[in-house]
Design a protein that fits this description.
Elements lengths: L1 H9 L1 H9 L7 E4 L22 E3 L6 E4 L3 E4 L1 E4 L2 E5 L5 E4 L12 E3 L14 E4 L2 H6 L7 H4 L6 E4 L7 E2 L6 E3 L2 E4 L2 E3 L2 H9 L1 H6 E2 L3 E3 L19 H5 L24 E8 L5 H13 L8 E13 L3 E14 L5 H21 L1 E8 L4 E5 L3 H16 L16 H10 L36 H4 E5 L10 E3 L2
Parallel strand pairs: 1-10, 2-5, 2-8, 3-6, 4-7, 10-13, 11-15, 12-16
Antiparallel strand pairs: 1-9, 5-23, 6-22, 13-14, 17-19, 17-20, 18-19, 20-21
This protein binds 2-acetamido-2-deoxy-beta-D-glucopyranose (2 copies).
The site of one 2-acetamido-2-deoxy-beta-D-glucopyranose has 4 residues, from loops.
InterPro entries: AMN
Keywords: Cell membrane, Membrane, Protein transport, Signal, Transmembrane, Transmembrane helix, Transport
Subcellular location: Cell membrane
Length: about 475
């Protein structure tokens, strides 16, 4: 608390800047699957039915289906409860048989979308902006953060509908906003109303519900994703490939061991996650030699080693995961370049130190010059403390080393190419107070689903039948 107050009072201008910038480091997460009639992956025969085919929807499944164009059918079996969303130009014509080019006609079934889960990291794409989403400039993340974080904007592609199971380990699934058919919901009451609507019930199901308008991330150094409570749920969907490198690494928030490198960055006031991500993008990933590397960067809680040796409570750090899809050598080369950049520019970027681990077994600790002086001060304090001259007040994240344990554990550390220290004064994230009301309501491109959507609840349904014949 004392530390926090000290830093804030020193830098009122920067603090103000942060507060006004609104949501920091929120990403856009786009749901990949759809339940569109015209998407061949939704049909059990692998192709969109044509005019001689008999089309079946599972009777007992609630479903929302988007019909973009006119499709001809022979016969259609509808579910008990569902909706077709028909934009202008979408619809069905009934064919009396013999459509040329359609073959003899088969019975084809719409695939069951019931099991697709929100917490499946394979079903999302992430990008820094809507424009990036559209242009296919996606960001790599660890598994936990492939799924929408509490500060993210969730996008269901325009011109699609979907069905998603939002069951979570918590009662609600908090996100910043949800966009469905170009309509962006960022106010909680409005979105709850949508979830209660017929369309909402056909699209979202499960024992927890998404909730929009979660606290905005006001901290330019990034915010915690919040998905670790669902870690097991997320990882149950992931199949890990066997790794062949010498020393596979396990990034925080990931489900699998990886071959590559992990850079851990300690930040101070002034660090901006988004601009640092852009910096690495432009400085390194745009180079031909590094183009194949996946870089995932986020703020995570990690248990840290004080002075590189003594474990202590977890602190927030910036984790950069580098994967090259191969042995990890290329990732390690990039990690070294990033550390060199930190040595040169760290103090301008709000970085107090960095280290990396690579799956070759290499481990490098680097520090920004200037920090070392402070650490020397701490060491003196530690010695004075041991002699009983100084009593250290409550600083729960630092365990004071005994000199013998220091000496001993130093020998246990592998290959150092550089010795450095992290700065315990600056290792706590600066928690900016939330400023309510900054997240204004954006002008929305509103689409009234009711007017474009045609929905049916089949009143003639008999419990003993499994489907209803929709012959015209
Ligand atoms: C069809 O669905 C798949 C997966 O559900 C998706 O990846 C693909 O983009 C969709 N195709 C179109 C044309 O939207
Ligand atoms: C289908 O939706 C209705 C509401 O429209 C709901 O009462 C019912 O539980 C849902 N059934 C399933 C299997 O999700």
């Amino acid at each position: 608390m004392g530390k926090l107050f000290h830093m804030m009072s020193r830098t009122p201008v920067i603090f103000l800047l942060f507060s006004l910038s609104g949501a920091a480091d929120a990403l856009y997460k786009q749901w990949i699957p759809d339940t569109n009639y015209g998407n061949k992956t939704n049909w059990d025969k692998g192709s969109v039915p044509c005019g001689n085919d008999i089309v079946k929807f599972l009777a007992q499944r609630n479903i929302s289906v988007y019909v973009k164009t006119v499709h001809s059918i022979q016969e259609m079996w509808l579910p008990v409860n569902g909706e077709f969303i028909l934009p202008s130009g979408g619809g069905f014509t009934v064919n009396s048989g013999g459509e040329p080019g359609c073959g003899a006609g088969v019975t084809t079934q719409f695939k069951d979308a019931e099991s697709l889960q929100w917490f499946d990291p394979e079903l999302w794409k992430a990008a820094a902006s809507l424009d990036d989403l559209e242009k296919g400039r996606f960001l790599f993340s660890v598994h936990e953060e492939s799924v929408p974080c509490q500060n993210d904007d969730v996008v269901f592609r325009d011109g699609t509908t979907f069905r998603v199971d939002t069951t979570s380990n918590k009662l609600i699934v908090p996100v910043q906003s949800v966009t469905v058919l170009s309509k962006k919901f960022s106010r909680s009451s409005e979105f709850s109303q949508y979830l209660g609507s017929h369309s909402g019930q056909m699209q979202f199901h499960g024992s927890s519900a998404p909730s929009v308008g979660a606290a905005t991330c006001e901290d330019a150094s990034g915010c915690n994703c919040g998905n670790s409570v669902n870690h097991d749920r997320i990882c149950s969907k992931v199949k890990c490939a066997p790794m062949s490198c010498k020393k596979p690494l396990y990034p925080t928030g990931h489900c699998c061991d990886v071959c590559g490198a992990i850079v851990t960055v300690q930040y101070t006031l002034g660090f901006n996650l988004e601009s640092y991500r852009n910096r690495l993008q432009h400085l390194f990933l745009s180079l031909a030699s590094y183009r194949s590397i996946h870089l995932g960067m986020s703020k995570v809680l990690k248990s840290q080693l004080f002075l590189g040796v003594i474990p202590r409570a977890s602190v927030a750090v910036i984790q950069i995961v580098l994967l090259d899809g191969e042995s990890g050598e290329l990732a390690e080369a990039l990690a070294r370049d990033i550390l060199n950049d930190v040595q040169d520019q760290g103090s301008n970027l709000g970085i107090s130190g960095a280290e990396f681990q690579a799956s070759s077994g290499a481990m490098v600790v680097g520090a920004v010059i200037g920090v070392i002086v402070l650490v020397a001060g701490i060491l003196v304090l530690a010695v004075l403390y041991r002699r009983g001259i100084v009593k250290i007040p409550t600083m729960p994240t630092i365990s004071v080393p005994s000199l013998s344990s220091l000496r001993q554990s130093k020998q246990e550390i592998g290959e150092f190419t550089d010795h450095g220290f992290e700065n315990p004064i600056f290792d706590q994230p600066v928690v900016m107070p939330e400023v309510p009301g900054i997240y204004g309501s954006e002008a929305m491109n509103s689409i009234a689903l009711k007017s474009s959507g045609v929905y049916f609840t089949n009143p003639a349904f008999d419990e003993n039948e499994t489907s209803v014949d929709f012959t015209v």
